[in-house]
Amino acid sequence: MNNRQPTLDEVALRAGVSRGTVSRVINDREHVSKKARQAVKSAIEELGYVPSMAARSLASQRRGAVVLAISSDDPALFANLFFAEVISGVNAVIEETDLELLLVLAASERGRARLTRILQSRGADGVMLLALRENDPLSKVAENGGVPVVHGGRPLNRVPQWYVDADNRGGARQAVEHLLATGRRSIATVTGSLDMHVGVSRYLGFREAVALAGLSDRRVAHGDFTEAGGAAAMTQLLDEHPDLDAVFVASDAMAAGALRVLRDRGRTVPGDIAVVGFNDIVTAQHTQPALTTVRQPIEALGREMTRMLVRLINGEQPTPLILPTELVIRESA
Q1: Whether residue 163 has pLDDT greater than 90
Q2: What is the C-alpha separation between 114 and 111, in angstroms, rounded?
Q3: Mean pLDDT: which of 57-66, 150-159, 165-174, 281-290 is highest?
Q4: Which of 45, 67, 284, 321 is 20 to 30 Å from 153 at the Cα level?
């Protein structure tokens, strides 16, 4: 006769929710949907699960946790205002729950190993992924962890089940269409990293807009979303295309570097060359001149990916979300 008691994990599997959700139901905690709570209670009854007093005591002292895993190990990461705004959005939602936030920089093998240990030890109820590159091993580590995974931005060459992204392609088209509307015809672009979906999407938006206008899409220099990368790419464009009269730069950080090079080379903005960036980070308002840019709802990206993850943890089934972008016209274009 088998007298083995069912485990918390078996209850979670039967209910179709995370282990953390089962613990919250057992301990009558908040932030569990009515549907998930009923599924857990039904699974407990069907399996005959009886939580021990020790287990209940331990679970009641442990707060649930989620991981924000960023595919970067750059020490300058937190100087990047994009990541700072995303984290601010994530934290705003976390503060409304009883969850803890764990931040893991996981571009290196050591960082990925740390995330693996957290997931294997049941130290987190869900994972959010940010800044993935092509064939990024971080994606597999997270998805093998047995918890819900939400992507902030889509990875390149595949569509995950759950993600929150911005309309990067449409935003890039808006930027170029604005330059065309102001009479510019020799339009160049500084791309972002092309091993990232965001970089490819903004580049494709540029190509579509100039192609529809019957113009060349060959004025291209590749950047890496950093100010230094934008400066190097702008230098290349000026050397190779001295006739250019406008440039769409795929991030505000790179655009700040491009503006510095244009100033050093004696080109007026927007008189000689109009410039449009992308993101609308705080920096865009304080460049010289102030930067026309495509506003990406960065803090909202952090908020919405966290809300999606909380819903998944609670046994709900949210749908992917693409946030709209809008052009913000300032002095540079």
Answers
A1: yes
A2: 5
A3: 165-174
A4: 284
Question: What integer pLDDT is reported at residue 21 of this predicted model?
Answer: 82
